[in-house]
Write a structure and sequence with these properties.
four-stranded antiparallel beta sheet
Length: about 120
């Protein structure tokens, strides 16, 4: 089991930036990828970005060019730098960790609100 704790959410105006952080602890050797999903109000949870231990990244089309995922393997941290934020980016953002595309570890989520 891997424990994940997110931080960095908040309220920002459209066009602004935020950086989310996620700290992982526990059985770190059971995972080879970490990432972010989000759940907008009244909608289902959706994929945002993932990054493997070797640094390979994958992004949802809706955030390409605006969001950047990175990780610090030594600190067991993953980050999501969000720029040019839009009101439709408003959501609860969840950190996740898993192996071979199966994400079974989830954080509690952090709220991001983008005002227009």
């Amino acid at each position: 089991q891997v424990q994940l704790v997110e931080s960095g959410g908040g309220l920002v105006q459209a066009g602004g930036s935020l950086r989310l952080s996620c700290a992982a602890s526990g059985n770190i050797f059971s995972i080879n990828a970490m990432g972010w999903y989000r759940q907008p109000p009244g909608k289902q949870r959706e994929f945002v970005a993932t990054i493997t231990n070797s640094g390979n990244t994958n992004y949802a089309d809706s955030v390409k060019g605006r969001f950047t995922i990175s990780r610090d393997n030594a600190k067991n941290m993953v980050y999501l730098q969000m720029s040019s934020l839009k009101p439709e980016d408003t959501a609860v953002y969840y950190c996740t960790a898993g192996k071979f595309g199966i994400y079974s570890n989830w954080g509690q989520g952090t709220q991001v609100t983008v005002s227009s």
